[in-house]
Structure to design on (326 residues):
């Protein structure tokens, strides 16, 4: 089988999964571009990202420009004489001059079924929106935001219990397999990219910590979807007295017999907390896993055993905090 000279560009775990698959393939990785090291942890030490660490472990040349818009970075890329550049969650914009350097252009592993969820956070936004399925697409990159023609895609269901972390890992594996298959087809001259439909376009805005605070006047379905989407980051939360209760798993429950003020804790279930929600206060959010400051994520039953007095029925969730930790 023909082998392609590949430059890989990526930074986080999602990208490292694709790089690992390429290392096991027939193709030759001639260089790895990744974002500069960032300070992390309490000590703020400079740490290599997952892609850089994997590249170093496999003795691959690593490049960490702060931008690909400079003549120097473009000359570095051109000197590698790559057939194709593979981009997976890289985090830097690729100007047209870079897209034009490899013989076969640049291809991207994107965590959605394009054109739905173009942009920065497709995995989480699909869950938050209540989509019944997601997937991964291998796309020929152009100058637009995830607007290029699609070579191939793979689909996976989103269940009422799927979290952002679980879907991330599933799509990373699907994307890695699909990437190698697409590169094999490119090497044989058999890959064909299909332009994206003009209808059905949505944009997946970058996640922020500010949107993780819950508003219990929203519907139970919307709240449950957001909690699962934001697991493991930024993690949905609400206030309970002066504590920040982080919520890790929830589903929409049955409607309550009587309306309550949204955010009111109702009688507990066997394995879950029940919270009144919705504009009418008659919907119910079932919370199965949560976390209080200084502790770890616990099942609702474990949390009740440990802090029952804080979570008695009638307690209101969502009142303003007075200096609770972030």
């Amino acid at each position: 089988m023909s082998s392609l000279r590949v430059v890989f560009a990526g930074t986080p775990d999602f990208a490292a999964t694709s790089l690992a698959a390429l290392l096991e393939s027939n193709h030759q990785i001639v260089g790895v571009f990744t974002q500069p090291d960032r300070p992390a942890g309490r000590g703020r030490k400079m740490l290599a990202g997952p892609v850089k660490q994997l590249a170093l472990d496999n003795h691959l040349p690593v490049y960490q420009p702060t931008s690909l818009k400079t003549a120097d970075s473009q000359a570095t890329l051109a000197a590698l004489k790559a057939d194709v550049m593979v981009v997976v969650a890289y985090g830097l914009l690729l100007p047209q001059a870079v897209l034009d350097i490899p013989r076969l252009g640049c291809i991207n592993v994107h965590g959605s079924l394009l054109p739905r969820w173009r942009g920065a956070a497709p995995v989480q936004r699909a869950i938050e929106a209540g989509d019944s399925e997601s997937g991964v697409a291998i796309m020929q990159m152009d100058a637009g935001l995830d607007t290029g023609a699609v070579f191939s895609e793979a689909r996976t269901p989103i269940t009422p219990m799927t979290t952002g972390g679980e879907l991330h890992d599933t799509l990373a594996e699907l994307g890695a397999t699909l990437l190698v298959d697409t590169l094999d087809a490119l090497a044989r001259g058999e890959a064909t990219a299909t332009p994206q439909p003009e209808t059905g376009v949505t944009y997946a805005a970058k996640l922020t910590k500010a949107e993780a605070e819950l508003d219990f006047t929203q519907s139970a379905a919307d709240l449950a979807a957001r909690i699962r989407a934001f697991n493991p980051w930024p993690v949905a939360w609400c206030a309970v007295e002066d504590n920040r209760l982080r919520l890790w798993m929830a589903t929409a429950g049955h409607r309550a017999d009587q309306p309550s003020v949204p955010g009111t804790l109702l009688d507990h279930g066997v394995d879950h907390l029940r919270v009144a929600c919705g504009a009418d206060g008659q919907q119910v959010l079932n919370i199965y896993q949560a976390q209080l400051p200084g502790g770890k994520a616990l099942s609702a039953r474990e949390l009740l055993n440990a802090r029952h007095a804080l979570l008695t029925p009638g307690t209101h969730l969502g009142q303003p905090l007075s200096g609770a930790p972030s």
User: Anything to note?
Assistant: Confidence is low (pLDDT under 50) at residues 322-326. The radius of gyration is 23 Å.
